[in-house]
Specification:
- By secondary structure, this protein is α+β, with helices and mostly antiparallel strands.
- Helix content is 24%, strand content 36%.
- The protein is built from two helices and ten strands.
- The protein has helices at residues 2-24, 149-164; strands at residues 28-38, 50-51, 56-63, 69-76, 82-88, 94-100, 108-111, 117-120, 132-134, 138-142.
- A hairpin with a 5-residue loop joins β3 and β4.
- The structure holds 2-acetamido-2-deoxy-beta-D-glucopyranose (2 copies).
- Belongs to the Ole e I family.
- Keywords: Disulfide bond, Signal.
- Residues 1-20 form the signal peptide.
Length: 165
Amino acid sequence: MARFLLGAIAFCLLAISANARVQGQGQDFEIHGHVYCDPCRLQFKTNLSYPLDAMQLKIECKNRDNKTTTFTSETKSRPDGYFVVKVPGDHEEDICEAILTPNKHPQCNEIMATRDRDQVSLADNAGVVGNVRYTNDLFYMTKDADNRCEAIYESLWDDVSEQDY
Ligand SMILES: *[C@@H]1O[C@H](CO)[C@@H](O)[C@H](O)[C@H]1NC(C)=O
Ligand SMILES: *[C@@H]1O[C@H](CO)[C@@H](O)[C@H](O)[C@H]1NC(C)=O
């Protein structure tokens, strides 16, 4: 019985490591992320941020050294702001980015210089298990801040004051 159990455990371990290897070959990476509107022009998520549907994103991989584009793709965010893009192959030599493109949203269409893109590493040796990579949240801003942002600015100011004094 003990021998059988050991055999079964060894078999499982083999199966797991084989599976890890297959995953590790990175035939298909997936980039996941969220697109939000920031109506307070703070460049981070607040309780007034809301997800943006049908926002067009560009995925771009470029060679680190000579900046040659090795992969491009486009996708749209879902109603909950979520997006998923499949990127075939290992991109160890590349820098891959998810980038927001100009949109026609009636309120929320200003691109934020710093929060319109994020880099991910699509390499097996990135020290991340599995083939899913998450970007930071990406934001568009409204031209004018929402009136309700006042309360948020105040609470931020309170936090800062408490820390500094
Ligand atoms: C850029 O570098 C990659 C990797 O070294 C190489 O395969 C590719 O041919 C290079 N492209 C150009 C245009 O030099
Ligand atoms: C959002 O956060 C602010 C500041 O923390 C708070 O005053 C406000 O009541 C919150 N609004 C909602 C809708 O939760």
